[in-house]
Structure to design on (316 residues):
């Protein structure tokens, strides 16, 4: 059966209490839907993902945070210790999403702008290798790599069940990194007719209803036209060195596959819009090509997950 995550809301609420209420809602909805957990993504505009993960674990009965881990933000030891700490405190594992950062401006702001795209994935591979050793090795870890050096390092509480590692990216360097590490790779998918076969995960939004007309009305109500957003998208498409952003920016969307929310800078993933049967058939085509896990976009309401579940059911 295909595994499903949702996505935690971005920390853009007017204050912390409003954000905590919104996060608690989405966490509760995810739990009620029986999904695996919530993606917690991270960049320079958002609050610390580890603290969001702590809030999720406090509120969820089953769902776990899938925390974005970016080498520019922390060392592999700091990430391993935080993951182990959360597992120790809550008795449940966290999942870790390995990322390199896609905004050139954000990387430059942190003094990392001179590191090339492929080199960031080479560093991420070493980061993840050291991270995994710290979390899994019964002995202190010594590492003398290019980017990270440890001498007899160990964690205060090594988890009995190590965190699951996944990786996000769609470039050749990302594919190689995921293969070298032996982890599932998530991508923002192109239309299924062009989607490469092989074991993978995808991130997208789903707006499904009993009829196509009702689904498209809900889609346009949620994502109306936005000329300013379109201009921001065009600027980002020129400045970003992320392979996936450039790839999606060139895609010709049609039918169930919808890119309007992406091209108005409302979200970063494509959407599938249509009846349960239409969306289910499109999902089934992805599954037939090797997709085994899906991260859904941030739900707008609890009903979104109910409708999405019926589309997944239709996919078989």
């Amino acid at each position: 059966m295909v595994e499903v995550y949702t996505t935690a809301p971005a920390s853009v609420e007017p204050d912390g209490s409003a954000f905590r209420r919104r996060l608690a809602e989405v966490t509760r909805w995810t739990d009620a839907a029986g999904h695996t957990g919530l993606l917690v993504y991270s960049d320079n505009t958002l609050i610390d993902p580890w603290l969001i993960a702590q809030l999720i674990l406090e509120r969820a009965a089953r769902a776990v945070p899938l925390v974005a881990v970016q080498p520019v933000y922390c060392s592999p030891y700091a990430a391993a210790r935080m993951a182990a700490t959360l597992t120790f405190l809550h008795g449940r594992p966290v999942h870790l999403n390995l990322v390199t950062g896609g905004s050139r401006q954000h990387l430059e702001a942190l003094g990392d702008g001179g590191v090339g795209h492929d080199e960031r994935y080479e560093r991420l591979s070493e980061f993840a290798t050291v991270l995994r050793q710290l979390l899994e090795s019964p002995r202190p870890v010594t590492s003398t790599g290019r980017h990270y050096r440890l001498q007899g390092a160990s964690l205060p509480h090594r988890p009995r069940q190590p965190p699951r590692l996944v990786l996000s990216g769609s470039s050749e360097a990302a594919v190689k990194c995921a293969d070298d590490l032996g982890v599932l790779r998530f991508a923002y998918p192109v239309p299924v007719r062009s989607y490469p076969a092989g074991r993978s995960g995808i991130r997208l939004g789903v707006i499904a209803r009993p009829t196509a007309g009702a689904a498209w009305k809900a889609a346009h109500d949620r994502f109306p036209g936005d000329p300013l957003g379109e201009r921001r998208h065009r600027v980002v498409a020129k400045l970003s060195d992320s392979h996936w952003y450039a790839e999606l920016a060139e895609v010709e969307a049609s039918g169930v596959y919808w890119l309007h929310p992406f091209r108005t800078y409302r979200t970063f993933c494509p959407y599938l819009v249509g009846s349960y049967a239409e969306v289910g058939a499109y999902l089934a085509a992805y599954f037939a090509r090797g997709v085994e896990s899906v991260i859904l976009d941030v739900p707008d309401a609890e009903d979104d997950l109910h409708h999405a579940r019926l589309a997944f059911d239709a996919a078989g």
Notes: Residues 24 and 265 are 25 Å apart (CA to CA). The chain is about 45% helix and 20% strand. The first helix runs from residue 16 to 33.
